[in-house]
Amino acid sequence: MSSPNKSQMVKPRLPRGFADRGPADIAATDAMLAAIRETFELYGFEAVETPFVEYTEALGKFLPDQDRPNEGVFSFQDDDESWLSLRYDLTAPLARYVAEHFDALPKPYRSYRCGWVFRNEKPGPGRFRQFMQFDADTVGSPGVAADAEAAMMLADTLERVGIARGDYVVRVNNRKVLDGVLEAIGLAGEENAARRLIVLRAIDKLDKVGPEGVAALLGPGRMDPSGDFTKGAGLAPEDIERVLAFTSAQAEHAGLTLINLREVVGTSARGAEGVEELATIAQLVGAAGYGDGRVVIDPSVVRGLEYYTGPVYEAELTFRVKDEDGRPVRFGSVAGGGRYDGLVARFRGEPVPATGFSIGVSRLLAALKALGQVREDAARGPVVVLVMDRDHVAHYQSMVAALRAAGIRAEMYMGGAGMKAQMKYADRRRAPCVVIQGSNEREAGEIQIKDLVEGAKAAAAIAGHEEWKAARPAQFSAPESELVERVREVLARH
């Protein structure tokens, strides 16, 4: 078959906003996910999985920073002309699942899910069109005890994956309190829905643009450094001051924060209800021992999604690391969620209380890497049996079979190159060791085992090539009958 000419060749390129993952990243992710799963199951949550694709109408129009119907999602038509979409989060599919199996599920229904979600948005630094989330939700629990438990479970999860106490905080607020503030400044009712959304988005950007930036977004609008202008909510100065007072109501302890919030909501019944719910959450987390700074009441947390109806919470990492230019940076939020009592009701026509949160898997893994909590050898490869004599491939294969039978990852070199290239291959495979047997070793009933991990360390300390050849670092002989035992010894060292 003739080779394709250049005009027929396809350029290998990755679509913008997507990423490939190698074995080290996959292994590190799997280890972290296992720790998260253990925490969720400790709390009595069970696994469920929903497909990547849902009917578009089932997902709803709840994406943050999206004004037009269906913007932000990848959609296509089925052969019956129904519109389907790739899920943009794991919460909307759960609402569909619960509504569809409502009578068969125990209530409250406590479940967790992990998987890829997709956003049809303009990609940028740290902003991908495909990313992984890990969610936990309680459906059917009307009281805020479920919200308090979610906040505590978030704290436990961060510590289990390797974030030390003091390096994170779980912040809790309540949308009802914000609703009370908006009601007090005249933004109640459906006719003000668009302006309320602008206010919500403005507050959600507090950590990025600061109080002055939020004030501009609450007023006439804001021009960002790139020259893009964001239209504001058009609030009067006194109303902007009241909203900012809400976001800055946090005090040195929960009791004072709640006093400040009661003043901000004034006579609003909904706002007062939200404050009392926060008081209950503070009492519950305090009774469980989490009121030591791990879980705090913080009015600046609002969350960007529209479907939240009550308590909202966010896990923020507080430690600082340095970026590539040596400047100190913080990772900020790695997880968040809240109460969404209206999502399941979209399918059933009756209120179904629910609360839950989502962990940003990639962001949390990046934080663990910055803390040195991810082992570089997490994706250690298999033991490689080198092929020194191609007339005896079957014998090499028998050695590989013996290693695998003992539960040791192993492979026989399948290429056509010589020993030097085979050693290079084993290095690239991150093999812990290689097994070598030439004709002399075979006749003597022996094998050579080279510990590549220790060999690399020793080679780094040896000055010249001749010295290296004389030392033959981390390589030893053993009877072939002791293959499994001696390889296990090497693996045990690492």
From TrEMBL:
Q: What is its EC number?
A: 6.1.1.21
Q: Which GO terms describe its molecular function?
A: histidine-tRNA ligase activity
Alphabetized UniProt keyword annotations = Aminoacyl-tRNA synthetase, ATP-binding, Cytoplasm, Ligase, Nucleotide-binding, Protein biosynthesis
Residue stretches spanning the membrane: none
Check the record and name the InterPro entries matching this protein. Answer: aa-tRNA-synth_II, aa-tRNA-synth_II/BPL/LPL, Anticodon-bd, Anticodon-bd_dom_sf, His-tRNA-ligase, HisRS-like_core, HisRS/HisZ, HisRS_anticodon
PROSITE patterns tied to this protein? AA_TRNA_LIGASE_II
Disordered: annotated span = 1-22
Which parts of the sequence belong to the Aminoacyl-transfer RNA synthetases class-II family profile domain?
32-382
Its principal location? cytoplasm
Q: Where is this gene product found?
A: Cytoplasm
Question: Which SUPFAM superfamilies would you find in this protein's record?
Answer: Class II aaRS ABD-related, Class II aaRS and biotin synthetases
Q: What's the short name of a Pfam family annotated to this entry? A: tRNA-synt_His
Swiss-Prot/TrEMBL catalytic activity: tRNA(His) + L-histidine + ATP = L-histidyl-tRNA(His) + AMP + diphosphate + H(+)
Source organism superkingdom = Bacteria
Regarding protein family, the annotation reads:
Belongs to the class-II aminoacyl-tRNA synthetase family.
For this protein, the record's PANTHER family field holds: HISTIDINE--TRNA LIGASE, HISTIDYL-TRNA SYNTHETASE
**Oligomeric and partner information:** Homodimer.
This chain belongs to the protein called Histidine--tRNA ligase
Organism annotation: Alsobacter ponti
Q: Which lineage?
A: Bacteria, Pseudomonadati, Pseudomonadota, Alphaproteobacteria, Hyphomicrobiales
